[in-house]
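Extended Data, panel c. Modelled sequence:
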Amino acid sequence: MYVGLTGNIASGKSTAAEYFEKLGCYSIDADQISRIVMQPDQPAYLKIVELFGEDVLAEDKTPDRSAIRKIVFEQPEMRRELEKIVQPAILEYERKEVGRIKGRDDKAIIITQAAVTVEAGSQDRFDRLIVVYVDPAVQLERVMARDSISKEDAQKIIDAQMSIEEKLKHAHFVIDNSGDLANLKSEVERIYELIKLTKYGIKNS
């Protein structure tokens, strides 16, 4: 089974992926892959420099992700151009990683966490899609605490993303992470059992 795991900012995707790993799943992090494919020795690097200029490079000539993040947040058209460069590179790297895992374990359940799966229109590459949901009020508090920013700035970041309601339309499974870690662990275990049922030919409900 090849399963996508997505959700909006501060939804807890990474923690959910860690719990899936502890249950025996293989985990792939698209954000980590994006860091790799943006490095100087990777094909996307020159295109990124051409798009943003050398001002977004750190002293070691690697892309300054915080500088790029600021630009794309303020200029949505630049975000779209960046995605055109980075997404194909991420998907190709991911494809090779999935092949490597399957070559080693043909019974593998592989979980790929990626924030912009639905935005990129790439959800159909998965056998199933999990969306992590969090109550809006809880999400706002988590973003404020995580980034040490004001309520207004946190809301701007949240509003810049695709709505969770839109992502839920594509979900086969939904994890509610509005509670504590114990609740998240229980939710992951519940979904894991449903994935196993689906894997062996019993349809999920």
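The chain has a mean pLDDT of 93. This feature is highlighted in the accompanying rendering.
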